[in-house]
């Protein structure tokens, strides 16, 4: 009997955290890439795609977490060992010497030569010639690399990677300088490598249409993984709006089988008042305390906003998927004055604020102070607490408030504000179910209820 083939986990990131300085840039990133996969890394400028590729190729080391290459810690492979398995095509490359294209492509063979200065073998020469041919740069062989156009340099860098004959190809925006012909040719070439040589491909790419066309798996990245699935799930206009902050139309063009992403047509743009309309439920959560509520609101098709939430908090990741707007704060950071102003503004336009039973610390207690100030100006506030020891029970003085105290790390200020909120008329609930029943009965007309999908 032939054993069923088990996909090999070729490159695995486990809980990677990284920052260039004291600020955390990537927080708790985990991903698994099987041998022979073709993965596109999508995300706005500055979202950390290049940084993730540099971590995966061993150029940068994670502050926390590990990276496994074919089951072994990447650090144990050494630079040469990694270069024999992984080729990287950077966004651009500058050399201090006037190397020819042929010499540059020949450097792709260096990891396999006995010493850096070792003469290339006949086999190396053949591979270099083939790589230049495949990448369409054979005619540039004698030209000086530094004197080439951006697009020509990009194709030479791809030829260098091809000469390396890697198991894994990491590409950082491989088509950014290329005209449409070479964009298509380059991605066709990459796909050919993937299909014929089973080369694993991970490519940071800005063109969502090319990503949809060539990559079966898309990772949407915003300093962490926001979505990781096929094009149909990741190229969702609401998700793209949240991550990129723009309206796009996603659809399948006539005669095509792939998704296309376009700016909205002028005549299909929503009226200004619709665009500017804020969701009228706002959720304050953190530390996973909002998960059940946010899922329930989404299931009932309530539009809602959330935050401020720290990047890396599981509530933040979920809110990016489910909420219509998310106020975002840096990982682990206390609420900044900018985010607090955003929250204050949101409270002014919100009909109902739902406060989840989040841990209260010095970093987020300003949110509670804002909530109390907003309640005093008339904002409807629903306090959601654990089924037992709910805020209503705890804070009316009849029973002990041990559960609230247990999540209050402010030395009592958090509990005090919750008590004042109840005194000021915030309504307490013991379960998400109760909140939903209340919303069904009392939600004012201005609560936006989404039409069925
Ligand atoms: N060497 C560095 N030192 C300090 N900060 C850096 C360094 N390299 C990148 N950064 C910062 O890290 C953040 C992420 O950068 P990165 O290049 O990984 O993003 P990206 O998603 O690849 O962006 P783009 O799409 O614009 O290429 C940016 O804010 C950038 O300014």
Distance between the termini: 47 Å
Percentage beta strand: 15-25%
Radius of gyration: 27 Å
Helix/sheet category: alpha/beta
User: Fraction of residues in helices?
Assistant: 25-40%
Describe the sheet with the most strands. Answer: 6 strands, mixed
Number of β-strand runs: 18
What is the general shape? Answer: elongated
Give the C-level CATH assignment of the largest domain: Alpha Beta
Number of continuous helical runs: 18
Uncertain regions spanning at least 5 consecutive residues: 268-279, 386-401, 445-453
Arithmetic mean of pLDDT: 84
Fourth-tier CATH superfamily name of the largest domain: P-loop containing nucleotide triphosphate hydrolases
Keywords: ATP-binding, Nucleotide-binding, Translocase, Transport
GO molecular function: ATP binding; ATP hydrolysis activity
Protein name: Iron ABC transporter ATP-binding protein
InterPro entries: AAA+_ATPase, ABC_transporter-like_ATP-bd, ABC_transporter-like_CS, P-loop_NTPase
Key terms for this structure?
Rossmann fold; translocase; alpha/beta; 2 domains; six-stranded mixed β-sheet; 36% helix; Iron ABC transporter ATP-binding protein; elongated; transport; binds adenosine-5'-triphosphate; ATP-binding; 453 residues; single chain
């Amino acid at each position: 009997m032939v054993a069923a083939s088990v996909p090999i986990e070729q490159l695995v990131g486990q809980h990677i955290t990284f920052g260039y300085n004291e600020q955390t840039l990537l927080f708790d990133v985990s991903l698994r890439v099987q041998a022979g996969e073709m993965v596109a890394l999508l995300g706005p400028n500055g979202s950390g795609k290049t940084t993730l590729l540099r971590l995966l190729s061993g150029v940068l080391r994670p502050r926390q977490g590990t990276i496994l290459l074919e089951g072994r810690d990447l650090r144990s492979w050494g630079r040469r060992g990694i270069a024999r398995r992984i080729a990287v095509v950077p966004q651009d490359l500058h050399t201090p010497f006037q190397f020819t294209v042929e010499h540059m492509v020949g450097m792709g063979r260096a990891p396999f030569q006995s010493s850096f200065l070792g003469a290339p073998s006949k086999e190396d020469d053949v591979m270099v010639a083939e790589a230049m041919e495949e990448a369409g740069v054979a005619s540039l062989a004698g030209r000086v690399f530094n004197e080439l156009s951006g697009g020509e340099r990009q194709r030479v860098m791809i030829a260098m990677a091809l000469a390396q004959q890697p198991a894994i190809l990491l590409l950082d925006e491989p088509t950014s300088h290329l005209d449409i012909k070479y964009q298509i040719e380059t991605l066709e070439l990459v796909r050919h490598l993937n299909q014929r040589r089973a080369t694993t491909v991970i490519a940071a790419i800005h063109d969502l249409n090319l990503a949809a066309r060539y990559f079966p798996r898309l990772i949407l990245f915003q300093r962490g993984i926001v979505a990781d699935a096929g094009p149909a799930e990741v190229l969702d206009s609401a998700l793209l709006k949240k991550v990129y902050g723009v309206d796009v139309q996603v659809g399948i063009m006539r005669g095509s089988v792939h998704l296309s992403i376009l700016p909205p047509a002028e005549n299909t743009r929503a009226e200004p008042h619709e665009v500017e309309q804020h969701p009228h439920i706002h959720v304050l959560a953190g530390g996973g305390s909002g998960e059940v509520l946010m899922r329930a609101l989404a299931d009932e098709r309530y539009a809602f906003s959330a935050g401020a939430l720290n990047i890396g908090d599981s509530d933040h990741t979920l809110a990016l998927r489910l909420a219509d707007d998310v106020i975002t704060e840096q990982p682990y950071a206390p609420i900044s004055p900018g985010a607090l102003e955003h929250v204050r503004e949101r409270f002014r336009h919100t009909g109902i604020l739902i406060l989840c039973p989040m841990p209260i610390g010095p970093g987020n207690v300003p949110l509670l102070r804002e909530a109390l100030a907003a309640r005093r100006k008339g904002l409807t506030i629903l306090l959601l607490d654990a089924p037992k020891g709910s805020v209503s029970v705890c804070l009316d003085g009849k029973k002990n408030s041990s559960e609230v105290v247990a999540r209050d790390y402010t030395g009592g200020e958090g509990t005090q504000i919750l008590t004042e909120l109840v005194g000021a008329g915030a309504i307490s609930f013991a379960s998400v179910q109760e909140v939903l029943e209340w919303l069904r009965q009392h939600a004012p007309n201005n609560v936006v209820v989404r039409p069925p999908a």
